[in-house]
Amino acid sequence: GAGVSQSPRYKVAKRGQDVALRCDPISGHVSLFWYQQALGQGPEFLTYFQNEAQLDKSGLPSDRFFAERPEGSVSTLKIQRTQQEDSAVYLCASSRQGGNQPQHFGDGTRLSIL
Amino acid sequence: QQQVKQSPQSLIVQKGGISIINCAYENTAFDYFPWYQQFPGKGPALLIAIRPDVSEKKEGRFTISFNKSAKQFSLHIMDSQPGDSATYFCAASLLMGNQFYFGTGTSLTVIP
User: Fold this and answer.
1) Which residue of A34, B2, B29, B96 is surrounded by the most CB atoms within 10 Å?
2) Which of B42, B46, B97 comes nearest A104 by C-beta?
3) Which pLDDT belongs to residue B99?
4) Which of chain A's residues have a Cβ under 8 Å away from the Cβ of B37?
5) Percentage of chain A exceeding pLDDT 90
6) A63 by DSSP, 3-state: which?
7) Which residue from B44, B45, B46 is facing A43, i.e. has the nearest CB?
8) Where are the strands (E) in A1-56, listed by range?
9) Contact B98/A48, CB-based, under 8 Å?
10) A18-38 per-residue burial string, b: 16 or more CB within 10 A, e: under 16
11) What pLDDT sits at residue A101?
12) Three-class SS state of A34
């Protein structure tokens, strides 16, 4: 498709379970970003990839969060041993290059931890 | 610490009126200032963006005003329409940075 695609759109998991969220960026976009958006708040940066290299993971809240982009296109955000505070919308964005270029967002995955 | 401060939190405007949303920042190294529009259940969509070498940018009914000395920028929506009802986020990024720093959002309601 023409835009950033994320799946699943909704994910419900029990506390302690592992979850995996997928992002398909716009074709040809070098840069990929993950953000976390709490209810009623702006997106907050989690991590950034340029091609397959994870260049910045300073926003990952704990070592339970892990992201990868092994072939430089599709990315997966994994959360291990989920906690209730992980409940949020996880947004993926891509851009042609890194730096301050327009970022195009997917519709997100709404994660609910019971 | 919130890098970009946004106000108001919510805004109600009559159809045809002007909607104004304000943002302020502290980091003078910020070099790119986009505005995003977000509808419920959707991701943020880029609306308009400005760089600090210009004081104003207009695209259709949307205008960004930028005041570098005051470290403030604002979004003006002219002739507001009910379809503009959404949450608006300002953001900022560094020239060599990777992430956007978002404001906390403004929920705009345009009443017919």
Assistant:
1) A34
2) B46
3) 87
4) none
5) 91
6) coil
7) B44
8) 5-7, 10-13, 19-24, 31-37, 44-50, 53-56
9) yes
10) ebebebbbbeebebbbbbbbe
11) 82
12) strand
State the burial class of residue A10 (Cβ atoms within 10 Å of its Cβ: 0-12, 13-18, 19+): exposed
Residues contacting A45, CB < 8 A, separation 6+: A33, A34, A35, A58, A59, B98, B99, B100, B101
Backbone angles phi, psi at B19, to 5 degrees: -100, 135
Question: Quick check: A43 and B101 in contact, CB under 8 A?
Answer: no
Contacts of B99 in chain A (CB under 8 A): 33, 45, 48, 56, 59
Nearest CA in chain A to B43: A107
Residues in contact with B35: Cβ distance below 8 Å, sequence separation at least 6, in sequence order: B46, B47, B48, B49, B62, B64, B75, B88, B89, B90, B91
Q: Hey, is B24 helix, strand or coil?
A: strand
Judge whether A113 and A83 are in contact, CB under 8 Å: yes
Residue B96, chain A, CB below 8 Å: the answer is yes
Six token digits for residue B17: 């009126």
pLDDT greater than 80 at residue A20: yes
- Evaluate the CA torsion angle B72, B73, B78, B82 in order and state its sign: negative
Tell me the C-alpha distance between A83 and A101, whole Å: 33
pLDDT digits (tens, 9 = 90+) for B55-90: 999 999 999 999 999 999 999 999 999 999 999 999
A 10 A CB-CB count for B72 gives: 14
Cα B57 from Cα B63, distance rounded (Å): 6
Q: Is the pLDDT of residue B97 over 80?
A: no
